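User: I'll paste a sequence; please echo it back and then give the predicted structure.

Assistant: Echoing your sequence first, then the prediction.
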Amino acid sequence: MALTSATRPRSRSAVQCLTRLALLALALVPLTAPAEAVRQDHINAELVAATTAAVPGETLTVALRLEPDKHWHTYWRNPGDSGLPTRLRWDVPESIEPGPILWPFPERQPMGPLTNFGYSGEHFLLTDIPVPADFDAEELTLDVAASWLVCENICIPGSADLNLTLPVQASAQPSQWAKALQQTRKRVPTPLTAPAQFAVDGEHLRIQLAPDALPAGDSLVYFPATTELASNTDTPVFRHGEAVIDIRVETSEYLGALPKESEHVVVINNQRAVVFTARQIGADALIPVDGGSTAAAGDASFNLGLALVFALLGGLILNLMPCVFPVLSIKAVSVAQQSGSAAGERRVHALCYTAGVVGGFLVLAIALIALREAGERIGWGFQLQSPVFVTVLAWIMFVLGLSLAGVFEFGTRLMGMGDSLTHQGGRRGALMTGLLACLVATPCTAPFMGPAMGFAITQPAIVALAVFAALGLGMALPFLLIGFVPATARLLPRPGAWMLTFKQLMAFPMYVTAIWLIWVLGRQTGVNGMAVGLLGVVLIGFAIWLWSKRPQQGPARVGLALAAWLAVAGSLAMLASPLLQPAPASAAPTDVASAAGWGVYAPDTVAELQAKGQPVFVNLTADWCVTCHVNERVALNTATVVNAMERSGVARLKGDWTNRDPVITAVLEQYDRTGVPLYLLYPGEAGAAPMVLPQILTPQRVVDALDTL
């Protein structure tokens, strides 16, 4: 049987214009072109490769690409209560030995009393093929006989003889399928080295692992890789005890003689999976499960409701983060000026600001989701890994500082914005201030944000957008309350001459932010890139000076305006300079890592140190991450923590994510994080899993973690 599966109105327009410019600096989504496939009943099949050539001495990754029609599906290695797994039979040159199918974790496909495991939509079954170093043919031809079962209300067996011919070359480029295959590999379960055991206890199968083998509090889904052992329809229960993790599930009705070993897969947050082999023991040898917590698998103990609450709280706390203060200073000026306004006008401004913040987070969410779907390994704050975006943001902060200081004010028709903004422009200014606040918030991570963002990117797009919207709503909430709660409005100071001084004072946080961003640019690109950013500042300042010198009428007015626009155009043209390209990850500066006793992070270094019995503390950070710098200043680099680490013999490693680094991105994904900071404390035991520390650190928190070693 088968399955179905805010300043015055004029200066506010500066925020509107410049925020639009910042949004243009986001990267474009790369697209891949479709390829031809063999068409069978209700399914397309094709043999594809990750590279354009086979390279002797390297491993070639190929995949069977299957694309069932809508509502149709194929099956996993263990198909469940019915169905058949896909099979491959290779015909290749004698010296070539294809590896086994690397199965990505499946979907649960319930139908009536049955539950199957399989795949719907386009999916790839990977195979790694080592190419011998002495392989001297001009081409490598791979032939495979593929067979499958595709089902909806009926099941249709299918098969096809597929082939792929690749040139044999000294090097190869990624193919059009490279990103899709890379995404699939992330869903292939990774082996878990922790020991595991299983036993039949009455009518239940009990599987036990070390207490640190799986993360507590995450959404865990269990799949039996060994057939006819565990019930496919029962919902497994995970119990995290002090001494053991216990997975309990009903036994299969077809259970016969117990195997000496069985294989199991656990999916974590629907994002990654682990596979492990358990040895058979007697039920009396099972370890009692004392303390800890219990959760049903797939129950999403961290569910949408909790994610929305965490996102709302994270957004609210984000207002206290240092990266948001410069833009909030603009909003503070606006709020002070509105203290004498009518209640209705305050509410409109609050709604406009909220719409800007929420809209900005939704734009970032859409870009993040789209780029990840396209195969890009990015996370929270990804736009700040672009030197072009950092440059534009630094220029925006410089211009806003000049505007707040009263050096100039934007005209009411600047950049074609049109009609007088004495009324409507204030609302537009509130909207654009909200957008800008969102953009500059990304260098910071607040408490509660990490779990919420990690949950969001593993969910369907509509759920992810809801979580990002809740984050934006939380950030806008204080100003929303000021607009709608009369009691808070009465706390606002009365308008007066002090407002001009306050407005000018708020320019200086903008200048400091611009300097910090130029420093980040230098860290990303070197001193030449920093020089380009500073030259742009000079050109923009020159353009503003020319604009302010225009007479009321006459040819000089047009000439100076044209010269000003040419200066702006010149600064924008510099954004295409090759000097603004990020340095390769391997060439990233290491002085920060080597300072204060930090080594440079690499996964192999962690493994080597653990093998020698030395604990390791890993700090994954970025120069544009304000939260990271605050944690280092108040906790990690303090004498208390440094001395505690030295007493414990802990090696300290720092990984730099200022520019994109796929190695660090992979580690972030492994621990269900969308961005930095990430702090890991590894015990001095080979292969032992690390403790994940909170994103906001205090010296005591770190010392307490060290005491567990």
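The longest strand covers residues 139-151. The CA atoms of residues 384 and 390 lie 6 Å apart.
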